[in-house]
Amino acid sequence: MKKKLLTGILFALSAFVSCESLAGFDEGKAAFVSRDFAAALKEFKPLAESGDKQSQHILGMMYDEGQGVKQDYTQAAAWYKKAGAQGHQDAQYNLGVMYAQAQGVEQNDVESFKWFQKAASQGHILSQFALGRLYTLGRGVKADGKLANDWYRKAAEQNHYKAQLALGKNYLDGNGIKKDLSLAESWIRKSAEQGHHKAEYELGLLYCDGIAVKKDAVEAYMWLELAAKQDHVGAQQARDVLVKTMKAEDIAKGKLAANSWHAKLPANSAPTTH
Fold first, then answer.
1. Exposed, middle or buried by CB within 10 Å (0-12, 13-18, 19+), for 22?
2. How far out from the chain centre does Cα 215 lie?
3. What CA–CA distance (Å, rounded) separates 9 from 61?
4. φ and ψ at 273, to 5 degrees?
5. d(CA 99, CA 108)
6. For 1-107, which CATH superfamily applies?
7. CB of 185 within 8 A of CB of 168?
8. Exposed, middle or buried: residue 209 (CB in 10 Å: 0-12, 13-18, 19+)?
9. What is the Cα–Cα distance from 232 to 205, expressed in whole angstroms?
10. What's the pLDDT score for residue 29?
11. What pTM, to 2 d.p., does this model score?
12. Which residues of the chain have pLDDT under 70?
């Protein structure tokens, strides 16, 4: 899990129009966009101190990233907590990460879970995936495969590619959910089609073994090659084993398919590390 830092600030500045009516918010936004972080801090800090949750979140992120101030995780966590207490989803998520990673606060899985849950209940995608992981691992909460999959599904339905893969693999193995190869293939494919190398590898294996799909060496090669290009070691090894069983013309078809492939990304999104 990683916090949304600079990109998150830019999103915050553009998305929360209601805050722009506050004196100084427009000035802070203009200063930040022009990378005059000292001026941005001068505008946002009084707003944050007056209780504006959006400015509190932005100030937390500036301390988190060291934009206009010396990086200070303790200050970042304090401002996130003020914004999070007022229901700010991104601040709640970032605070959950800080408790998980002992940044600015003592490591506390229970607190991490609490803040992720607050954001996830409001539909925050990254927090929904984070809750799925915590229920899977039993961190800050008792392990529960069913609840893990419930949260993975919520994030997966919002195109979170890691949640799609997690849900697909759980359907494949019957982890916390009834085994369903068709649904497993469907969710793994959704993730792979977004360019997630781990999902591309898993889909390649399905085609290698003919699980939930018709066995197809060319398709298997294409997906393994796509993952291998992203330095997935398992995919590189599986591809090299596969080619020993393939005709030269089929290898050429697989290479062409991989070179022609373009990930089908949702609007305004791309696979990144979370």
1. middle
2. 31
3. 7
4. -85, 130
5. 5
6. Tetratricopeptide repeat domain (1.25.40.10)
7. yes
8. exposed
9. 13
10. 83
11. 0.88
12. 1-23, 267-274
Cβ contacts of 41 within 8 Å, gap of 6 or more: 59, 62, 68, 69
The pLDDT of residue 223: 98
Q: Are 76 and 5 in contact (CB under 8 A)?
A: no
Residue 6 pLDDT: 45
Q: Which tokens go with 180?
A: 């369903």
Q: For the chain, give the number of residues.
A: 274
Return all residues near 6 (Cβ < 8 A) that are at least 6 apart. Answer: 61, 65, 67
- Quickly count helices (H) and strands (E) in the chain: 15, 0
Q: Could you say which DSSP state residue 266 is in?
A: P
pLDDT score, position 8: 53
AA identity, residue 213: V
| pLDDT for position 4 | 56
Chain segment 74-113, per-residue pLDDT in tens: 999 999 999 999 999 999 999 999 999 999 999 999 999 9
> Nearest 5°: CA angle at 187, between 181 and 188?
85
**Can you give the residue ranges of every domain in the chain?**
1-107
3-class secondary structure for 151-196?
A: HHHHHHCCCCHHHHHHHHHHHHHCCCCCCCHHHHHHHHHHHHCCCC
String of DSSP letters for 44-73: HHHHHHTT-HHHHHHHHHHHHHTSSS---H
pLDDT digits (tens, 9 = 90+) for 200-227: 999 999 999 999 999 999 999 999 999 9
Distance CA 252, CA 177 (A): 39
CA distance 94 to 115: 9
Dig out the tokens for 50 from the structure. Answer: 């007056």
CA 173 and chain centroid, separation: 23
